[in-house]
Structures are given as structure tokens and as C-alpha cells.
Amino acid sequence: MQLEIRPDPAEVGRARSWARSRLTGLGIAADEPLAENLILLVSELVTNAVVHTGRPAVLRLSLPGAPSEAPEEVTPSVTVRVEVADTSSRAPVPRCARSDATGGRGLALVDCLADRWGWSPEGAGKSIWCELDRCSQPEEGAALAYGGGLSAYEGLAFEAV
Predict the structure, then answer these.
(1) DSSP tag of 55
(2) Helix (H) or strand (E) segment spanning residue 15
(3) C-alpha angle with apex 143: 30 to 83, nearest 5 degrees?
(4) Is the pLDDT of residue 161 over 70?
(5) Contact 119, 156 (CB under 8 A)
(6) Phi, psi at 150, each rounded to 5°
(7) Is the pLDDT confidence value at 152 over 60?
(8) Strand, coil or helix: 156
(9) Band of the pLDDT at 86, cuts 50, 70, 90?
């Protein structure tokens, strides 16, 4: 499934709504950690494409059980992939944002929330992707049911906005 994104900040909200509706259609509840993390990742990757390239982009979601895939039973352990392709050949560069900075934490959030992420050249541009694994029900009190963890960013300061 994919959505064309215009180089307009309002597209970020439209991308979140679109992704939310796709998840709901597959029976993934909006308050499920997978859905919450996925929507945040969509928001970050689309924002990066809109803000840093100023060019159109394409948001792609690969969801287990989606109509485009062979009919299979959705198991408790599946992978969801988010991908944003744009026409800029500039590589994404993670930044260390100062504690008083209003931006610069997007890729750090992607790294913390996604199980895997990366980027690759695509045509004249690039594609940035991340994957989330939908695991069996997490144990009560689990600190991070989804995501890669904070190990690479332990020294960074994160502030509530």
C-alpha cells in the first residue's frame, strides 16, 4: 500500500490518518503499542522527507494480511515495514540535538522505536525504511515491548514538548 506525499507539512497529518486507517482495517487496535509506535515512525519519516527535501515523496506500508499479499493467517509474531521514498539523493544523517533544540531527534526516535531501520538509493533518490515486529503479548511491566532500545542514544537528552 502506498500514499503519494506532497512537499507540504500538512501531509504529515494526512499520512498518520492514512496509516491509522490501514491498521484498523487489519484489526490492529489504535491503542496497541505496535500501532502507536508505527504512527510515530510514519510521522517522523514523512516529516523528514517534507522538511529536509522539499520534494514529493511516497509512503509505503507493508502490512501482514494486507490484500496485496497472499492470504495467510496473521500470526502473533509479524513484521510491519514503513518506507518513505523521495527524489533527494542526500543521505539521512542522524544528529545529536542539544537539549534546547526544537528538532534533530527524528532519526534517534526511529532508532529507538524500530526493530530495524536503514536507507538505500532508489532511482535518482533514496528510500528510508524501518520495521517493527509484532510480538506475542508482552509480559506485564515490560519496559520496551517494541523497538530497538536506547543503547545507542543513552547520553542524549530528550525533552517533552
Answers:
(1) S
(2) helix 10-25
(3) 50
(4) no
(5) no
(6) -100, 5
(7) no
(8) coil
(9) very high
Grid cell of 38 as nine digits: 508505527
Burial of 72 (0-12, 13-18, 19+ CB in 10 A): exposed
Cβ-contact 89, 121 below 8 angstroms: yes
Distance CA 62, CA 110 (A): 17
pLDDT of amino acid 154? 41
CA dist 95 and 62 (Å) reads 28
pLDDT of res. 103: 76
The answer to whether residues 48 and 85 touch, using CB atoms and an 8 Å cutoff, is no
Per-residue pLDDT reduced to its tens digit, 93-115:
877 878 887 777 888 889 999 99
**Are the beta carbons of 108 and 102 closer than 8 angstroms?**
no
**Residue keyed to cell 532511482:** 123
Measured between alpha carbons, how far is 66 from 98 in angstroms, rounded to an integer?
A: 40
Cβ atoms of 88 and 128 closer than 8 Å: no
For 114, what's the count of Cα atoms within 13 Å in the CB-facing half-sphere?
23
Q: How confident is the model at residue 91 (pLDDT cuts 50, 70, 90)?
A: confident
Per-residue pLDDT at 66: 59
